Amino acid sequence: MAGILGKPVRDMELKKGITASEIVRQMGEAGGFGARHLGLGAEIVKDMLADKECVNFLSFPACLVSTGLRGILAEIVPKFDAVITTCGTMDHDLARAWGGKYYEGSFELDDEKLHQQGIYRLGNVLIPNQSYGETLEKGMQPILKELYSQKPEWGGRELIHEFGKRVKDEKSILHQAAKHNIPVYVPGFFDGAFGANVFTFANGTKYKIDLVKDERELSDIVFEAKKTGALMIGGGISKHHVIWWNQYKGGLDYAVYITTASQYDGSLSGARLTEAVSWGKIKEKARYVTVDGDATMLLPLMLAGALY
After folding, report:
1. Residue in 57, 14, 3 with CA at minimum distance from that of residue 246
2. Taking the CB of residue 106, how many other CB atoms lie within 10 A of it?
3. Which end of the chain, N or C, is less surrounded by CB atoms within 10 Å?
4. Could you give phi then psi for residue 48, rounded to 5 degrees?
C-alpha cells in the first residue's frame, strides 16, 4: 500500500492578497481532481523551461488568438524555442495587429442574422468582415508583392517571419516571434485567410511556398536536441505535429496538454498524453500531464504558477 499512496491531501486556504501563483501551488498540493493536474502542469512547464538541455515547443490552435489570450501567448512565445500552430493564428493575429476590432458576443446569437449583417461568430467572439477578410487582404497583398520582388520562393516559416518583422504591435504573436527569432511553423499553411491570400497572389506568377523546407528545419531542431518538451494547448494538427516529429527522437521528455475534448471518440484532440506513449511520441519515463478544461481559463493560471 505504501507504494500506491502519494502525498497526503492538503486543504487549500484563501486569504486577502493571495497571488495567482500561490493558488496554483496550493492546487498542486490539494491532491484532488483537475486542480492537481493544473498544479502539476505548472510544475512541469516551470521545470522544462528551466532545463538548459531541453528544446521546448509551444503549440496552440488559432481560435485562442481571437480572444484576450492572444496577449499572453505573445508574452510567452520568447520563452520557447519553436511554435507550431494553425493558419488562422496568422489571420487573427495580423487582423488585430492591423487595427481589426473583435467584439464580445454570445454563443446563442442568431447566426442567420449575423451572416446578413456581415458578422462572423467564433464561439462568443464576433468579428465584422471588414475586421478580418478586408483587413488581411489590404495588409497582406503589398507585403507579398514586396517579398516576391526579393525572391520567388519562400519557406513557410520564412514568410511568416517576414510578416512578423513588419508588425509593430507588441501584443502580436508574430511580432514577438520575429523580434526574438522564434520560428513559427504552420503545417496546414493554406487552411485559412493567410494561406488563401498567398494562393491568390501566387496565381499567374512563379511565387512558391516550400513547406518541405519547414519540415527539414523541424527535423534539425528535433534531432539536434538533447531533450525536448512541449506545452500543447488544444489538439488537432498543431498538437500532432509536435508529437509526430518528436517520436523520431524517442519522444518528448516533458509534455503538458490542455484540452476540452473527450478521448472516447478516438480523436487526436481527445487523446490523453498517455496514448502518445504507446506510439513512442512521449517517452515512457517522461514527465507529462493532461489538463482537462478551457485554456482561456486554465492557461493564465498555469503560467502564473509556472513563471511567477
Report:
1. 57
2. 10
3. N
4. -70, -35
What grid cell was written down for 181?
A: 527569432
Instruction: Mark whether 281 is an active-site residue.
Output: yes
The answer to whether the CB of 306 falls within 8 A of the CB of 25 is no
State the cell numbers at 96.
Answer: 488585430
Query: Which cell numbers hold the place of 6?
Result: 502519494
pTM of the predicted model over 0.90: yes
Angle value at C-alpha 57, between 302 and 210, nearest 5 degrees: 145
pLDDT at 32 over 90: no
Contacts of 285 (CB under 8 A, 6+ apart): none
CA proximity to 95, closest of 201, 234, 193, 198? 193
35, 41 contact by CB (below 8 A): no
User: How many angstroms from the chain centroid is the CA of residue 308?
Assistant: 20
Q: Which residue in the list 239, 249, 281, 283 is annotated as catalytic?
A: 281
In this predicted model, what pLDDT tens digit does every residue of 107-136 receive, in sequence order?
999 999 999 999 999 999 999 999 999 999
- Cβ-based neighbour number of residue 74 at 10 Å: 22
Q: Which amino acid is at 77?
A: V
Distance CA 25, CA 53 (A): 25
Residue with cell string 487582404: 137
* Contact in structure between 192 and 237 (CB atoms under 8 Å): no
Report residue 41 as a C-alpha cell.
502542469
CA 65 to chain centre: 9
Helices (H), 166-210: 173-179, 193-202
Query: What pLDDT sits at residue 30?
Result: 81
